[in-house]
Amino acid sequence: MSLAQQQCEACRADAPKVSxxxxxxxxxxxxxxxxxxxxxxxxxERSYSFKNFRLALEFTNKVxxxxxxxxxxxxxxxxxxxxxxxxxxHAINGLHRNDFICAAxxxxx
Length: 109
Description:
This protein is α+β, with helices and mostly antiparallel strands and 109 residues long. The protein has a domain at 41-109: Transcriptional coactivator/pterin dehydratase (Gyrase A, domain 2), CATH 3.30.1360.20. It has helices spanning 20-27, 53-70, 97-108, and strands at 34-38, 41-49, 75-79, 82-87. The longest helix has 18 residues, at 53-70.
């Protein structure tokens, strides 16, 4: 089953972060995303381009609806013609499989 077809699971503070091997394997499934470290926390980041602010805002709202449906919430920065999305799991201060599922679902929007 592809990442975009999976559902997020409830994540607790003792949930395991993805291992380096899992990170490498999962990144192959979302090749347009980049692992970044922000404030010592590994996150997934991708920017999307749009022709104008209205289209960027519409996409932002779709990502917000996805986040609510999954119970997992990213950082979203909306600018004229650009939306940057960062997924990570706050409860564990790092990456969980949920972040990869949501990244794949974001791409499917």
